[in-house]
Amino acid sequence: MSETQQELKNAELNSVVDMSNFEVNRERYDHYNEEKLAFKAEPGISEEIVREISKHKNEPEWMLQKRLEGFRLYNELPMPNWGPDLSKLDLSKIHFFMRPDAKRNSNNWDDVPEDIKKTFDKLGIPQAEKNALSGVGAQYESEVIYHSLKKEWEDKGVVFLDCDEALKQYPELMKKYFMSSCVPVNLHKFSALHAAAWSGGTFIYIPKGVKLKIPLQAYFRMNAKKGGQFEHTLIIVDEGGEVHYIEGCSAPQYTQNSLHAGCVEIHVLKGARARYSSIENWSRNTYNLNTKRAVVYEDGIIEWVNGNLGSGVTMLYPCSILLGKNSRSDFIGIAFAGKGQNQDTGCKVIHIGKNTSSNIRSKSISKNGGITSYRGMLSVKKGATNTTSSVNCDALMMDNDSKSNTYPFMDIKENKVDIAHEATVGKINQDQIFYLMSRGLDEETATNMIVSGFIEPIVKELPLEYAVELNRLIQLEMEGTLG
C-alpha cells in the first residue's frame, strides 16, 4: 500500500469509527426508591453510633469490643497516601447505618416491601434463584431483607445466613474466624472502619466433604443518598468441601458521594476449594474501598473472578495467603473506567507453604479519560520452595485521553521459584476494524467483535444463565451500552 493510500484509509477510519459511544448501560441500576427507613444514623462515625449499631443488633460483648477497637484504630490509622485521590471523600457526611422499613431476613419474597421487591425484580434476583442457584441473600442498605437456602443443602449441613444471624446461631465460629487471621482489624484504615460499622453480609459454612456445585449468591443494594454500606462476608470451606459464591453490587447515581467498604474473608481448609465471583457496578458517585482476603491451607484452592465496572473510585486488591503446602490461587479480573472513573485494582498473593502456585490474569478497558491501574503484589516468603507464579496484565485503551498503569511489586525471598510477569497496553487496531468492515460488518459489530475477544476469558468464567445481564455489562454495543 502506498503512503497516499494509507493516509486515505486512515482518514476514512477516523471518520467512521467513533469510540465516544462506548459506555456502560446503567438503566436498570440507576433507578431509585423513595427513602423509607426505620432508622437512619446521623452522618459521620462516632463511638455513640458504633454502640448504637451493636445495641440494635443485640450483639455479645466481644463483638462490641471488636467494633470499638476498630473505631479506635480508624481514628489512629492514616488515609492511604498512594493510589487514587480520596480527598473528596468526606466521611463526616456519610450515613454509616440505615435500617430499611422492612422485615429482616425473610425467606419469602412476598414479605419484602413492594418497592424494594421491584428493585430486586429489575435486577433479576428472584428469577435467578429459581433457575440457577442453591440459595440467595439480598441486602438493602444496612440489613439483609431476604435470605433462603434450598432444603437439599440444608439437609447436608450447609449453612447460608447473613452475618448478623450467624452471630446468634454460630457464635463460636464467628468468634474464631471473624476479622482475626484473615483480615485483621488493623490491616488498614478502612478495614478498621469496617470493623466498627459492619452490618449484614453473608456467612457460609460448607461441612467436610460437601461439594456444593450449584452457586450461592448475595446481592447488595444501596439506595439512599450519602449512604455507606459495610457488609461482611465470611466463608468457611471445611476439609474437602467445595463452594461457588457470587456477589453482585449496585447503587443509583446521585450527586453526593457514597461509600462502600465491605469485607470478604474466605478460609479454605485442607483439600477444599472455593470460587468467589463478584460483579461490582456501583454508581460513579460511590467510593468502592473494599477488602477481600483468603487463607488457603494444604491442598486447598481459591479462585477469584472479579469485575469492576462502576464507581468513581475503586481500590480493590483481592489477596490470597497460601499458607499450606500445595495450595493454589487463581485470579481473573476485568476493570472498566469511563469518564470520571479511576479503577485501581489488582491482586495480591503471599506464598508461604511449599509447592504453592498462583496465576493472575488481569484485563482493563479505559475510555474518555478514564484511568485503569493494575496494582499487584507477589510475595514469596523464605522456605516457600518450588513456588510457581504467573502474572499477566492486558490493557485496552479506546482513545488518546485515557490512561492505563501497571504497578507490579515482587518480594522474592526464596531462590527455588519460577516467576513470570507480562504486561501489554494497546488501542483497538484500526486496521482490524477496517478489515472487518471490508468483509461487510458495520463499525459497531466490528468493534464489538474485537472487544468481545479481548474480554472473552472473563466472560467464560461467568457461565451461569442468571448472570447474562452481568456479562452484558462488559460486552460492547456501540449504541451506548455494554450489552
The general outline is: globular
Structural class, from secondary structure content? Answer: alpha/beta
What is the end-to-end distance?
A: 37 Å
Radius of gyration: 23 Å
The amount of beta strand, in percent, is 35-45%
What's the story with the biggest beta sheet? 14 strands, mixed
Question: Total strand count, please?
Answer: 28
Total count of domains: 1
Ranges with pLDDT <50 over ≥5 residues?
Answer: 1-22, 26-33, 463-471, 473-483
Mean pLDDT: 80
- Report helical residue fraction: 10-25%
Number of helices: 12
Question: What does this molecule look like?
Answer:
The chain is α/β, with parallel strands linked by helices and 483 residues long. The chain has one domain (21-482). It is built from 12 helices and 28 strands. The protein has helices at 3-16, 47-56, 61-76, 114-122, 125-132, 151-154, 163-169, 171-177, 189-197, 430-438, 443-459, 468-472; strands at residues 37-40, 98-100, 135-140, 143-149, 159-161, 201-206, 216-221, 228-229, 232-237, 242-250, 258-260, 263-268, 273-281, 286-289, 291-296, 301-308, 313-316, 319-322, 328-337, 342-345, 348-351, 357-366, 371-380, 387-397, 403-412, 417-427, 476-477, 481-482. Strands 5, 6, 8, 9, 11, 12, 14, 15, 17, 18, 20, 21, 23 and 25 form a 14-stranded mixed sheet that branches. A 10-stranded mixed sheet has the order 4-3-7-10-13-16-19-22-24-26. A two-stranded antiparallel ribbon has the order 1-2. Strand 27 (476-477) and strand 28 form a beta hairpin. Helix 2 (47-56) packs antiparallel against helix 3, helix 3 (61-76) runs antiparallel to helix 9 and helix 10 packs across helix 11 (443-459). Residues 1-22, 26-33, 463-471 and 473-483 have low confidence and may be disordered.
